[in-house]
Amino acid sequence: MRWSIKIARIAGIEVRIHITFLLFLAWIGLSYYRIGGTPAAAAGVLFILALFACVLLHEFGHALAALAYGIPTPDITLLPIGGVARLQRMPDKPWQELVVAIAGPLVNVVIAAALIFLLDRRADFEDLGRLQMPEIDLLAKLASVNISLVLFNLIPAFPMDGGRVLRSLLAMALPYSRATQIAAWIGQALAFVFGFVGLFTNPMLIFIAFFIFLGAQQEAAMAQMKDLSLNLPVSEAMVTHLVRLPHLATLDEAVEALLRTSQHEFPVVDDADRLLGVLTRDDMIAALKHHGPATPVVDVMHRDLPVVGPHDPFGEAFRLMQESASPALPVVDRVGRLLGLITPENIGEMMLVNSLRPRDGRPAWHRPRVAI
Ligand SMILES: [Zn+2]
């Protein structure tokens, strides 16, 4: 996240604070100072720091639960509105998502229970006068704020953990995208209620309503993408009508193929149709500047591109292509024979088709398959 400062690294997770969080602390300090001078300012800042320590532990709850399923969390960022744990991905199995979602609020349940136990013990053994002491007051406030954190996070609306809990429960009985749609719909309905109540009571609720509404929308869009990328095998998304260049072809022949077709990426194959490399339009332009038209294409093509199999999920191919910055991703069979190509254009078209499909329907070309 931009404008954030790294403050620690715990269990391989970078802990960062956003610059606005420091401003928020300064603002808290100043507001308390104007009411009660330095002691009040110190107490106010201390309370906020303790509160955000609880928020941080909450995020670590999510991160460590995800780690148990092999999903790393590169960083956790603290913002004035709360913490954000950036999980590399969400778990695919509903019950795993349920565990990851609930692990955060569970941490606050434990903290609140521990604090209440501690306060109870103190109240038993010390005289009641001590209950007015600032440290007791701080602990009591922390306990109640942890309970609020649990209740707030369990609101069944999307950016909240409760939204994920709801979705994962629904996904145990329904397809993932349908479960997300229903959860998103409930979240947005709740957002309207919050917004409406906020108009007459607390304007803060209107802010929360916006937050929930956008969160639900984003989650629904992401689920659609995920649905697409998870369910579709590469073989249904690849380009198969391809002009292939034989391994003895020259740059001249490649340019001719470029002019004759609308293709930008040309696979180079041997006599048995096994993939040797890919020659792109940019490769040709660069090569023509430095080499003659009689240069063999095998001398200037991209070699060692990552390849995928026809049954690999499309999402995997998309990720591989982004990670390796490949111009195209060849699809090969078990013995390395070329079956097709995933290109940036055809990914773009896939996204477009997906965005145009009816809300509940599947595109015509998407035949149902066994889940991977
Ligand atoms: Zn959470």
Helix content: 55-70%
Quaternary state reads single chain
Give the overall shape. elongated
| Estimated share of beta-strand residues | 5-15%
**Neighbour order of strands in the largest sheet:** 1-2-3-4
Largest sheet, in brief, is: 4 strands, mixed
Q: Could you tell me which ligands this complex binds, including any ions or cofactors?
A: zinc ion
Topology, number of strands: 9
Order of helices and strands: EEHEEHHHHHHEHEEHHEEH
Query: How would you state the average pLDDT, rounded?
Result: 82
For the record, give the distance between the C-alpha atoms at the N and C termini, rounded to a whole number. Answer: 33 Å
CA gyration radius, whole angstroms: 28 Å
* Content-based structural category: alpha/beta
Low-confidence stretches: 358-372
Give the number of helices.
Answer: 11
What does this 3D model show about the protein?
It is a single chain. The chain has 372 residues and is an alpha/beta fold. It is 58% helix and 12% strand. The chain contains 11 helices and 9 strands. It has helices at 19-68, 94-125, 134-153, 161-171, 176-200, 203-231, 234-237, 251-260, 281-290, 314-324, 344-356; strands at residues 4-10, 13-18, 75-79, 82-86, 245-246, 265-269, 275-280, 329-332, 338-342. The strands form 3 sheets. It has a 4-stranded mixed beta sheet. Strands 5-6-7 form a 3-stranded mixed beta sheet. Helix 2 crosses helix 4, helix 5 (176-200) packs antiparallel against helix 6 (203-231) and helix 6 (203-231) crosses helix 10. The radius of gyration is 28 Å and the shape is elongated. Residues 358-372 have low confidence and may be disordered. Zinc ion is lined by residues 58, 62, 104, 153, 161. Zinc ion binds at residues 58, 62, 104, 153, 161.
